[in-house]
Amino acid sequence: MLDVFQKAVAGYGFDSFFIAGVPTNDWDITETVLLTGGKAEWFAEYVANGYVRHDPVARHCLHTSMPFDWDDAPYDPVAEPEMHEMLMLAASRGLVSGLCVPIHIDGELAGAVSLMGDPKGLSERQVLEVHMLALYTYGQLRYLHSQPEPGRLITDREGEVLQWVAAGKTASDIAEITGLSPRTINQHCENAQKRLGTSNRVHTVVEALRLGLITI
């Protein structure tokens, strides 16, 4: 998928990209990165140092579901010096302009596809094409990452959620702990239930315990 997406976006003038889900409550995106292409050193630095906390592009994704030019992400360089410093650092690494596609699902921000390059020469039709390409690719990546590893009946995230359910936590509790939304927590429970062929959440936890997928 990396080569296919990279070639596709290159046709619109973008040479690098970063695709990730919503960070946790402390803005740690380490486990939410789905795919990157190009600028490997910068992306590793960005994730390791938590630069997403000071990224106006990432923040703007909370307020729109439409693709936007990085330059359109507002911030105050005087009142928000950390953001200005991060942008200057990114520019020194060759990241000056780009297009960001926020991914909203059921009214909530689920992630984003950020493309490095100059979007100003794109027509409205081309922006729409990039938007559709980003939505499709993000959906495919989320599907692939939601599948359990060979030999494992449920995903690591589903196991983590069931572990908290077994500890008596509600969906809201688990959402606060993990940084996910209650809707996502419930979806993980439903996915695990389908995979294990159980009838309800309690039955799912019991079966996961019986199979040694989680412990208490």
Report on the structure:
The model has no long low-confidence stretch (mean pLDDT 91). By secondary structure, the chain is α+β, with helices and mostly antiparallel strands. The radius of gyration is 19 Å and the shape is elongated. The protein is built from nine helices and five strands. Helix 6 (156-166) packs across helix 8 and helix 6 (156-166) crosses helix 9 (201-210). The protein has two domains: 2-145, Beta-Lactamase, CATH 3.30.450; 156-210, Winged helix-like DNA-binding domain superfamily/Winged helix DNA-binding domain (Arc Repressor Mutant, subunit A, Orthogonal Bundle). Strand 4 (98-105) and strand 5 (108-116) form a beta hairpin.
Radius of gyration: 19 Å
Shape: elongated
Number of domains: 2
Q: Low-confidence segments, ≥5 residues, pLDDT <50?
A: none
CATH architecture of the largest domain: 2-Layer Sandwich
Strand content range: 5-15%
- Compute the separation of the termini in Å: 38 Å
CATH level-1 class of the largest domain? Alpha Beta
Largest sheet strand order: 2-1-5-4-3
Report the strand count.
5
Q: For this entry, what is the oligomeric state of its chains?
A: single chain
Helix proportion range:
40-55%
Order of helices and strands: HEEHHEHEEHHHHH
CATH topology of the largest domain: Beta-Lactamase
The CATH superfamily title of the largest domain:
Transcription factor LuxR-like, autoinducer-binding domain
